[in-house]
Design a protein that fits this description.
The protein is mostly helical and about 200 residues long. The protein is built from 9 helices and no strands. Helices cover about 80% and strands about 0% of the residues.
Length: about 200
């Protein structure tokens, strides 16, 4: 039962991370502009948030789940504003000359920005809760070991996707000159800002 739950979590984590959204666009942009490490840490922040929400859904922590869902308007508002801010900042950003110029503080910032951005989307918890209920784990006593394996699988599956994406995109980095990277920033910034405006519009 344990290995099966871990495999299900691995596949679920990979599949929930793979669709292209604002985090994917941000990961691609940071990989091209700042290097593979920046792109991977961007995705790792989202993977960590996925694991947090997976824990809430898998272990049936209904109090936290209800609190997050009840505050979904304010969390969605903050998330939409943050996306617009990231989009504008990305649009105006100058390309980095070398990935080695990125300091550890920059990597931490890449990680925390997407971690908080993903947590600001409380509707994600509904996906995890529904999936974990379908797997027969949510809100079940005595299933903590299986739930733990499932959450670990979700984290590693999501992390695997971001590792593959940042690695694949980094192979294309040498093909972009400064002018090309500047356009990458502009296009990425516009797309991210668009996601933020859609998120804010959905609250109306």
């Amino acid at each position: 039962m344990g290995p099966e739950m871990f495999l299900k979590g691995l596949l679920f984590g990979f599949s929930i991370a793979a669709p292209v959204g604002p985090i994917g666009v941000l990961t691609i942009r940071r990989t091209l502009s700042d290097g593979r490490a920046a792109g991977f840490f961007t995705g790792l922040g989202a993977a960590t948030a996925d694991a947090v929400y997976g824990s809430v859904g898998g272990f049936g922590i209904t109090l936290i789940a209800d609190c997050l869902i009840s505050q979904r308007f304010w969390l969605g508002l903050l998330g939409g504003i943050f996306l617009c801010y990231l989009g504008i900042r990305t649009f105006l950003a100058a390309p980095s000359d070398q990935a080695s110029d990125l300091r550890s503080k920059g990597l931490l910032g890449s990680y925390l920005s997407t971690f908080l951005l993903t947590l600001a989307n409380p509707m994600t918890i509904l996906s995890f809760t529904a999936a974990f209920t379908g797997l027969g784990l949510a809100n079940q006593s005595g299933s903590y070991q299986n739930a733990g394996l499932l959450v670990a699988g979700v984290f590693l599956g999501s992390t695997l996707w971001w590792f593959m994406l940042s690695g694949g995109v980094s192979r294309l980095r040498d093909r972009f000159d400064q002018a090309g990277l500047r356009w990458v920033n502009r296009v990425s910034g516009a797309i991210i800002c668009g996601f933020g405006m859609i998120a804010l519009y959905s609250l109306i």
